[in-house]
Design a protein that fits this description.
Helix content: 40-55%
Strand content: 15-25%
Number of helices: 14
Number of strands: 10
Structural class: alpha/beta
Order of helices and strands: HEHHEHEHEEEHEHEHEHEHHHHH
Largest sheet: 5 strands, mixed
Radius of gyration: 19 Å
Strand order of the largest sheet: 2-1-3-10-4
Length: about 325
């Protein structure tokens, strides 16, 4: 991943890109590993963006999907022009929206499954038990959804002015690498702010693994962890692609609800996940695991925290500030 200096240089560059942009028919999209991103796997397998673009009068569209281990690498790729559309967390969307002065906005949310802080350290029962030497794996330090939920939890546990108390404990690891670390009894990383399916894999396969906290308890309900977003320049130049992404996402979410088994089989095919269909279906029956919704959930509480702590320089008045107008009919929060 590029340094923060380079990343912010790229962010600044977005604001001075030429206003003119060509309508594209070759679209590149990125995502991270995990069940959170199952709608994107269905979209890829069934070529749903291509299908809906053609129905909107834009035939010949092709898509290329790239998987990154963390949201920071994804945002670097977007700002450098390497990808057109991201599917990643709320923290990255809000940060880019703020830094580009509205030059990056959401299209639709894709999922809001619960995240869980899991530890194999028997001494850690709550976040108050972490010492200075205890490491917590998150996909991107300070700005990933997991890192920010941890800050909100720290503010609740230690006091509002102590929101960053556990920042120094976090280390950057993609979810597959964090799972591998927890599975290795000799590894210094013994805790991971995890997402499905890694939450379930860790609880099933890592000796002593237990849940320290989960995101719905911290946030008071579901939190959109994955959403599609892009630059407003791309959106303005490619309105039919934006419509196609929304329609494709809804079709994929509807399939997950109506034919979960087929959806899981597609997920396994695209990702190469070796988890059994039976396990995946069982996990999707757990509380909160069928939160597949177009509307963003819990994002304003998230944004309020980021503004209060100075991470965001601008406080959004509503979630529609950081989403494209094409999503304004949704009942988000």
């Amino acid at each position: 991943m590029q340094s923060w200096a380079v990343a912010f240089a790229l962010i600044n560059a977005v604001t001075v890109l030429p206003a003119a942009a060509q309508q594209k028919t070759e679209i590149s999209l990125s995502r991270q590993p995990g069940i959170f991103y199952m709608p994107s796997h269905i979209i890829e397998k069934q070529k749903l963006i291509e299908k809906h673009a053609a129905a909107l009068g834009l035939p010949g569209v092709t898509t290329k999907w790239v998987t990154f281990s963390g949201g920071g690498a994804q945002t670097d790729a977007l700002l450098a022009g390497g990808v057109d559309i991201l599917n990643t967390g709320t923290g990255n969307l809000l940060l880019l929206w703020d830094r580009t002065k509205g030059g990056v906005k959401g299209i639709v949310a894709t999922s809001a499954q619960p995240m869980a802080l899991i530890s194999r350290d028997p001494h850690i029962k709550s976040i108050k038990d972490f010492t200075a030497n205890d490491k917590i794996a998150v996909p991107t330090v300070k700005i990933s959804t997991q890192a920010i939920v941890l800050q909100i939890a720290a503010a609740e546990a230690f006091g509002a002015d102590q929101w960053s108390k556990l920042d120094s404990n976090t280390v950057q690891l993609g979810h597959p690498d964090a799972y591998a670390a927890l599975s290795n009894s000799q590894h210094e990383v013994r805790s991971h702010f995890s997402i499905p399916p890694f939450t379930f894999l860790e609880m099933k396969n890592v000796p002593g693994a237990h849940v320290v906290l989960n995101s719905p308890d911290v946030m008071g309900g579901p939190l959109s962890q994955a959403q599609f977003f892009t630059t407003t320049k791309f959106a303005d130049a490619n309105p039919k692609i934006i419509q196609a992404v929304r329609a494709a996402t809804k079709e994929a979410q509807d399939l997950i609800r109506s034919d979960t088994k087929t959806s899981v089989e597609i997920y396994k095919e695209i990702t190469g996940d070796k988890t059994s269909v039976e396990d995946l279906l069982a996990w999707l029956k757990e509380p909160g695991m069928m939160e597949w919704n177009l509307e963003p959930q819990g994002t304003m509480k998230f944004a309020a925290h980021l503004f209060k702590t100075g991470t965001l320089k601008t406080q959004p008045k509503a979630w529609t500030d950081y989403y494209l107008p094409s999503s304004a009919d949704l009942k988000g929060n």
